[in-house]
Amino acid sequence: MEKLARQVTGLMKIPTIFKKRPKNWVLKCISLALSVLLWYFVVGEEQVDMNVLVPLEILNLPSDLIISNQYKKDIEVSVRGSRSIIQDLRNRNITRPVDLSDAKPGTIVIHNDENSIPFPSGVKIQRLQPTNITLLLDKLVQKDFPIVPVTEGEVAPGYVLKKIYLTPDHLVISGPKTILDQEASLKTYLINLDGLDRSTTLQIHLNLRPEFLDLIGETVVTAKLEVHDKMEERTVKNIPINVREAGVPVTVHPDSVTVTASIPKNLIRDTPELAMLLRASVSAKDIHSSLRLPVTVSGVNVPGHDPIKILSVRPTEVIVTPILQANPGSKKNGKTNNSK
């Protein structure tokens, strides 16, 4: 019986492989299991292809430099990997970094390869383009550009374009020196003047070259067109003198004046008697004896036309006499005016 027990005990002994187990054998078993599991997901999982756009990320560009050329800002990359990793790429903000901290004015060629883009492990780059991107670096400067209005056509007959006021009348632009040096001023698109017979205000776009359009975008200025009548100098005789504020009847000698005035050309054309456009008067307030009084002449304001400008009056003074002190024969030499 004792012999049988020893035989059973011998059969139940732990095999040598387990008896001589290494240290930390549990951790090593777990690592083996994880490796097998990872291999399944990475190698054993279905492999898929996908095209992605990777933006170019410019880093540490010096403050006194600017990229002056148009360049491709995205890299087209075809990648392959397990379905789960490829799907995860959609949630990642992957860029192609370009460090320009040591850059100087001139041309820089950026070379793109599979090591340029920090894709996660398990992603293989099949193809990418462009493989090279060229950057032109230029000095960043500011320049003040006057804005020049450009016109076509003619205003209506009898009118003249005096001035065009622009708001703003200049622009300060920051950009590459080589581009800004190509222009001395900025111009508007054509402003059509055909048939214009009055002042007006318009919104006008600037006519910009593509390089300037990239710098400041579509730009609109306000143009105020100042249109005036063409004026002609005319001498008009026999403008009657009106006596104002006289308390008694008076006589005026002489009783009319000759006026030289600058009159709108269209008013001259449309007015049969130019004397209708002028008014002459003297003020005889509190007059008790003959006085030499100054003559005031003004033009009639006609809506839609510039005011008449008085250039000269002859004579500049007239003699005004109260009628009670006048000699019997004085009426033959002057005009009798009642109080107005």
Describe this structure in words.
- The protein is of the alpha+beta class and 340 residues long.
- It has 3 domains: 47-139, RNA Polymerase Alpha Subunit, Chain A, domain 2 (Beta Complex), CATH 2.170.120; 142-229, Beta Complex (RNA Polymerase Alpha Subunit, Chain A, domain 2), CATH 2.170.120.40; 231-337, RNA Polymerase Alpha Subunit, Chain A, domain 2 (Beta Complex), CATH 2.170.120.30.
- It contains 7 helices and 21 strands.
- It has helices at residues 2-11, 16-19, 25-44, 83-89, 177-180, 210-216, 265-270; strands at 47-59, 65-67, 74-82, 96-99, 106-111, 124-129, 132-152, 159-167, 170-176, 186-192, 200-205, 220-229, 231-244, 250-253, 256-264, 278-283, 291-294, 296-299, 309-314, 317-322, 335-337.
- The strands form 5 sheets. Strands 2, 5, 7, 9 and 10 form a 5-stranded mixed sheet that branches. The chain has a 5-stranded mixed sheet with strand order 18-16-13-15-19.
- The protein is rod-shaped.
